[in-house]
Amino acid sequence: MKTLIKTIRPLGFHWQxxxxxxxxxxxxxxxxxxxxxxxPDASLSGRTIGQDFVQKDGWRMYHGSKVPGFPAHxxxxxxxxxxxxxxxxxxxxxxxxxxxxxxxxVQWMTAGGGVMHSEMFPxxxxxxxxxxxxxxxxxxxxxxxxxxxxxxxxMWNEDIPLVEEKDENGRITRIKIISGxxxxxxxxxxxxxxxxADPDHEVAIWLxxxxxxxxxxxxxxxxxxxxxxxFYKGGTIAIEDQIIDAGHxxxxxxxxxxxxxxxxxxxxxxxxQGKPLxxxxxxxxPFVMNSNQEIQEAVYQYQRTQFGGxxxxxxxxxxxxxxxxxxxxxxxxxxxx
Length: 337
Prior knowledge:
27 strands, Pirin family protein, Pirin, Jelly Rolls, mainly beta, Pirin_N_dom, 6-stranded antiparallel sheet, RmlC-like_jellyroll
């Protein structure tokens, strides 16, 4: 049998992806109960505050000093797709936009010409532990759209399609479609200038949950489309004549349908697919352009403009504890869930 697997590699904190994706960051923290001010009710001694990426006691503060998360930082030239399956994120940005989202919601942010934002993880539960399960996928932008206006789109959990597929034995695979389509189910539209906005680019972002023993087939795609599976939770899956343990990713060859079977425990996988940009990629931290000169220009632009400045009282801005899920956009439009 001709194998459809190109590469198998172990997963780490940052998952290696294929063009048009840049990488995927995976965060899973079991935070302690909150302290009433949305921080952890626990000592922070022994942690490198401001740079805490060691999962001590099962959780990290990241760059936060009181509340875990990522204080104000810039992005330019690409997109972030933030899937928050459990827990919450408080977003604030240099355009004056803000939001609180999570527990199944997705934020699709096209940074384009530049934006500063913060992503803090408020711990709202003061009587029990606070779990965070988050994927942030960096999707590149083509040269022609590197400088489009920054914009974010909310995909609320209630609006994201969930497909249930039964195999010949009646066992179920559930697919959450953040981008792309499966059968007659189509994802919500991404941000308007997104690379995924053109269906010809075949961008797909799916979360796949499989019952024990279930079988699932990824549909065929065009010959130039890249696709990858990230097996982040479970026991094993069987692909062709291989057994793959959880904690691995697989880069798949394009073209034919791809079938695999879950082992004897529930499994969870992330699936990424898209036609490659086939453009030069030069990355300098949160700036992704096509040349070193463009990177220098991006850094200068940020130093000169701060991408609009920071309108919030703190670089670690959080929203009032009592607020629910919401979004306020730069044009003043509000969404409340």
